[in-house]
Fold each of these.
Amino acid sequence: MISAKSHILSAVGCVSVLTLLVGCGGSSGSKSSSPGSNSQAVIVNSGPPGNGGYINGLFTTVTVCAPGTSTCQPISGVLVDTGSFGLRVLSSALTVSLAQQKDVNGNSVGECAPFANAITWGPVKTADVKIAGEAASAIPVQVIDPNFAVIPSGCSAKGTPQEDLMGLGANGILGVGTFIQDCGGACAVTGSSNPGFYYGCSGSSCHVIAESASKQVQNPVAFFAGDNNGVLVDLPAVPASTSTASGSLIFGIGTQSNNSLGSAQVLTVDPNTGTLTTTFKGQSYPGFIDSGSNAYFFLDSSKTGIATCPSPESAFYCPSSPAPLSAKNIGFNGAGNTVSFTIDNATQLFSNSGDTVFPTLGGTNPGFDWGLPFFFGLKVYTAIETRSTPGGPGPYWAY
């Protein structure tokens, strides 16, 4: 069933990093598909050509098709993001014609997807989405397109538009986080409580609409025929900065021999906020595990005691020597574990010509965003809300 919970946006953006934390609702079971069909290659590198260079970006290829047809297009350079929900593709990277979603008045539906310091704007369209041997049929996706309509003032006030390859740093974002829709019940109501993600547009005029959960941009994994209860990101340990790192995005949790939970500890998340609790130096903060952010983003110098870098890298930390740290993650279920990590001088790291993989990169944020460096050397599971898994129902992270 679809609940009416509202999820707060919480994200960090640096070097074209976006993370969307909203969504809710949905229920389904999970079954396995044929062996080997659930694993997709991923790579950490500088991203698609022409993006200006990306650091700690986890990329893969997603195939987009006109629904029910063999008219398909593989799109490479799509950022894999466990902190957001749904597929978003740049119009400049898309050649397949997709059907435009309409509202009850026949107006074209657009979305303003807000992030902490940015937005993506463009029409909601319908596509078949294929990854590895899995497929989600006729689901809503966002096409990021500055030419769709004039960005409404209520949307532009939420952040800077990321509307092209240089701005986004990727050809799209594959949101495979813990929720099924990107807004849920909050966007399905009329009135002032609606957060204003979805718009009905006629010509250049757009107004906020109530968008039912089923018509919102959807997490594709939740609509696979099998292996639809979550994902596993499996990346190798990276002992020092390097040029690239390759791994796997594996669909399903406990559905096949390659996605068993094993000894991973399950940390459930708050079903309303999508966060767990991170304690650091005796204080508690909201935390989330997010492959779409390119660093450990946490607090500020007054709380960490670590100096930030001079401009233009002032969003990152620049300790005079490597800073060993630890923090404890605590799930909504009370389970917890301590994570040890090290932060190095970002300016010095970036001076390593040709390197795009930085396991010790950190930056500032009010809460704890366990970005891509957290994933190196771990098997990190993201379980989708309400779905049954061997570790209990989602939503949760496990590692």
Amino acid sequence: MLLSHGDGYRGLGRPELNVPYRPSTKALTRPFAPKNVMVTSPYVIGKTDIRWDSPTLHPENSGLNILGCNVYRATESPFGTFVKVNAAPVGVLSYRDETKEEYVIEEDATPTLIPGTGPDGRWLIYSQFRPIVMPGTNGRVSTRVQDIKVEIDDGDATFLEEPAFKLNGITGEIELIQNAVYNDVLEQVIPPRLPWPPTGRVRISYTYIQHQVLSVLNQRIFYKVTTVAEDPDNPAQTIETPLDEIEAMSTFDMEILDWIWKEGIRRNRWILEQGGERVKVFLRRWMGTLCDSYQHVHGQSHHDCESCFGTNFVGGYEGPYDIIIAPPETERSVELADMGLHMRYDWLTWTTPYPILNPRDIIVRQNNERYIVGPVNYQGQRGAIFQQHFTISYLDEGDIRYKIPITGGETQIPESTNSFREPLKSEASPVIPVKPEIPEDKLLKGRTVTWENITW
């Protein structure tokens, strides 16, 4: 069976990563990572299980006092940045990464108090932790005042529970009731109870997300597992497997590829290198710090925001990362759309197994044309991904996503390098072949590495 396209696997099997090997030596200063790491779902929303074999089974770790394993997580991309999720080395062969809710009891919010003496007359307090969420909803941001408890001391040294007027769970902003309210039970108007300075105080109780694990279709979460051992030279210190030696795993890696399929992927990678087009890809963020322009009422940010580029999250995109895609095989056409003339230039293409693409990611060609990724079809067998089929559609030059900065500066074409990759800047950069024995004035130059294969 011939694969239509694919990617090359280097080192331990993860594409695009040159994983270094350490020579076998008795004087081992760093332990090797556990084998057969697997990331799977326990079929529970907001939970992911990571499993591995005992690192003591690794022959190179014999003689070391293994203390356990550390689990690191990265979002959106297998290239980092990885953050440790466990507090102490894990002594068992599995770890459950899950959404963790923290309930804060009677937090003193008096230092954040903004008395209603300004132009709008609002009394505001702010939570120390945010976002404030609805308990048991896997991180759903709350705007309901029922999800918080507000207690106010108006100066009489007594805390009484009072309902809040308004809650913004994203910013942790809580607005107090500053007007008299009619009580149906008492059938009378009740004056507002407010924490008047300097003796007034206010405290709040609420639930916030300490750590969240998304369970959505566009989830891209990657894990690395390291081995932690006692330092033979200093028992008070520990040594750990370097992260750059470990293959990142995700829930997409349901089964490890055998050598036959790896070889097929290598050969199809060669096909891409010979006839494919080097581009950059920006991976759209699906989690992170919410942008200030985010409108909770509408559930989105401004489409022209240069802080999040319409993605709702600060930064907007991860990357750029260098990939090779199949060249275009379609015609351009100009049509009259609602907003004016639009160039239609869509085509079905394919690329390597990694990085994992999702709809709304951005492809940047070497002439700075930008395209949005459409539906992605993952090709593989038994749950192992071999390649990715997807459509890309041309974005008009006035689109905010043309302002996403790339190598070489905003709206600039990536800088060129020579065929020896000195210095190595980007696989997506134009390449100028160099032949020391050919005079400069007679040297034929192209834009790809394969130009050298064809010309000389």
